[in-house]
TrEMBL record, chain A:
Chain ranges of the Mannose-1-phosphate guanyltransferase C-terminal domain: 283-411
Organism of derivation: Orbilia oligospora
Gene, per the UniProt record: PSA2
Role summary: Involved in cell wall synthesis where it is required for glycosylation. Involved in cell cycle progression through cell-size checkpoint.
Protein family according to the UniProt entry: Belongs to the transferase hexapeptide repeat family.
E.C. designation(s): 2.7.7.13
UniProt name for this protein: Mannose-1-phosphate guanyltransferase
Record SUPFAM superfamilies: Nucleotide-diphospho-sugar transferases
Pathway: Nucleotide-sugar biosynthesis; GDP-alpha-D-mannose biosynthesis; GDP-alpha-D-mannose from alpha-D-mannose 1-phosphate (GTP route): step 1/1
Gene Ontology molecular function, alphabetical: GTP binding; mannose-1-phosphate guanylyltransferase (GTP) activity
Chain ranges of the Nucleotidyl transferase domain: 4-209
GO cellular component term, pick one: proteasome complex
TrEMBL record, chain B:
EC class name: transferase
GO cellular component, one term: cytoplasm
Domain called Nucleotidyl transferase: residue spans: 1-198
Any single Pfam family the record assigns to this protein: NTP_transferase
Record has Nucleotidyltransferase as a keyword: no
Protein name stated in the entry: Mannose-1-phosphate guanyltransferase
Pathway membership: Nucleotide-sugar biosynthesis; GDP-alpha-D-mannose biosynthesis; GDP-alpha-D-mannose from alpha-D-mannose 1-phosphate (GTP route): step 1/1
Alphabetized UniProt keyword annotations: Cell cycle, Cytoplasm, GTP-binding, Nucleotide-binding, Transferase
Catalytic reaction annotation: alpha-D-mannose 1-phosphate + GTP + H(+) = GDP-alpha-D-mannose + diphosphate
Organism: Arthrobotrys oligospora (strain ATCC 24927 / CBS 115.81 / DSM 1491) (Nematode-trapping fungus)
Every Mannose-1-phosphate guanyltransferase C-terminal domain range: 224-331
Role noted for this protein: Involved in cell wall synthesis where it is required for glycosylation. Involved in cell cycle progression through cell-size checkpoint.
Amino acid sequence: MSTKALILVGGSQRGTRFRPLSLDQPKPLFDVAGHPIIWHCLTALTKIDVKEVFLIGYYDESIFRDFIRDSSKEFPQFTIKYLREYEPLGTAGGLYHFRDVILKGSPKRFFVLNADVCCSFPLKEMLQIADDREAEAVILGTRVSNEAASNFGCIVSDQTTKRVIHYVEKPESHISNLINCGVYLFGSSIIFKIRKAMEIKADRRSSDPLYDPSEEDGSDNVLRLEQDILGPLAEEKSFYVYETRDFWRQIKTAGSAVPANALYLQKAHQSGAEDLAAASTTIIPPVYIHPTAIVDPTAKLGPNVSIGPRAHIGAGARVKDSIVLEDAEIKHDACVLYSIVGWNARIGAWARVEGTPISVNQHSTTVLKNGVKVQSVTILAKDCVVHDEIRVQNCVCLPYKELKKDVVNEVIM
Amino acid sequence: MILHQVEALAAAGVTDIVLAVNYRPDVMVAHLKKYEEQYNVKITFSVENEPLGTAGPLKLAEEILGKDDKPFFVLNSDVVCDYPFQQLADFHKTHGDEGTIVVTKVEEPSKYGVVVHQPGHPTRIDRFVEKPVEFVGNRINAGIYILNPSILNRIELRPTSIEQETFPSMTRDGQLHSFDLEGFWMDVGQPKDFLSGTCLFLSSLTKKGSKLLTPATQPFVHGGNVMIDASAKIGNNCRIGPNVTIGPNVVIGDGVRIQRSVVLEGSRIKDHAWVKSTIVGWHGTVGKWARLENVTVMGDDVTIADEVYVNGGSILPHKTIKANIDVPAIIM
């Protein structure tokens, strides 16, 4: 029995934490492991029986046109449509707004995927648990460290039945280290739950003497799945969690694209993907090199490196744990570690562009250096130039900047 | 460094050299003995069992220094300059007094001891003013002297300072003159100054058109002032210079960039490394794509792992550095 899938892509007013990279490209289309972030969601959906995929967001329609055209060819098993919200409605508000499209054909259930997560998307397993428990909703959960947990939605579940008994978004105190991965399987009845939640919210407002409309961050229609729906859902008896032990990362800040790139590359490598570069004395897997990129045979790449279209890597250059985007150039003997080299950026000979290694399981992209919080990953945005022999460490460099002096721990405006 | 001094002394006709040392003499003995024959000089080691200051060691070596009435030179080994021994000896003979000290002009005399001449006399020293607060002159003691054996009578065998005890006693008697140094001068006691001194020394060799320098026609030489031992091996596509010395049996890989550095005997710098303002110690190893800068000093047999960055690290012997040193530090 087929299901539908909704991918929540957000809008340009959101995703500001992905700057400076989102200044030049919408985050869902940013390439990690050689493919746009949402391409990885689509690939996961090919593993189950899905006939219709909807991208929901408030970007301009034109943004996804090329991607949808190309993906429709690559993934003929489902149709892909973009549904545009004209004002931010919140994750639940958006679902309700497009309820007619979602409920058309009376599907029994549908998937909702946040575009900004990087994981193995164990959708089959989620379907299985829904069937086994006759669940109305299944949420994907993962265990994180106790310190990291309060930055996410926390799930308390029954150890044996896996039923969700309590859900709190970003709690102030410790509740659980099982967190919401941003991937859901809902029965169609969720739409009515959302309507009910909207009514309750409106009621509360009209009867709450302390309610101040200026404190709201959008229109009355803003309703978020995490804050407004999942909590009440846990009160009912048919909300279950599938706990994944596979990798999971959020792609929020621009720096988080580096660990996401590493995880997707490792997954592709372990599953024997054919588009990865073969191991050799100069290639330490996993490494993705776009067919149009030019890499000197004496350059050493990897692990966890993606080289974009028409990028140029010079003789004796070294690239490790990094993303090199379209048309970028790294000259001879340069060294690039834990960094993102933006579109058409230039790195000079013997230059060193470097971030700080952080563990893949650490859900943060900042490090403390001399008591100051800095980006762990160095990011050079579009058209940046690093001169020969210059060193750039733990910096975020906005588009079109030219670096002629060594810089450390700075945001270069 | 000391070899430059031995060489310059031999050229000025010196036959006996006394090295006043108080540490690792066996290392220095092995190092210097082989040069005795080459330069036709006799090198004697005078070992202090307790530190004797700057004058005490002269008394200790009285037997050699006082064996005839010919004057002797005294050099601080930390000093690098164009050693003007012949002219100094000639000048010393001309004035006929007991001692002559080499002086150099500095821009900021307030940090040093300044020489003040007797009124109306161009070279006879009247007194020294330590760290003058108002300008009394800008000639400072360059740490090189020529003295008659008679001054040994002014020194007792105990820890004593030539600058603070012996010289003042000589100026009181009008027996001390100054000799102006031409060209560069540098006290290279600190690694930072050692690198600067190397730059000055190499520049002076370039000015003289010295054959010791590696010719700029070599494809890897960049900006000149490069001195590479004939036994060193240099890889392809390197860019070396300006101001680099590379010692015997050093191996430099491909695509290596070195500037303003001293690479000592038997060390190895691997492919694509970048080295600036660094002293690579004896038998050290610098990994591929490593980057060393800002007065990094590697002791004997230190290894820097591939891709590691070192900013101003002073690394003690036999250490292996596997993680970045982002801020200057001493690694024990």
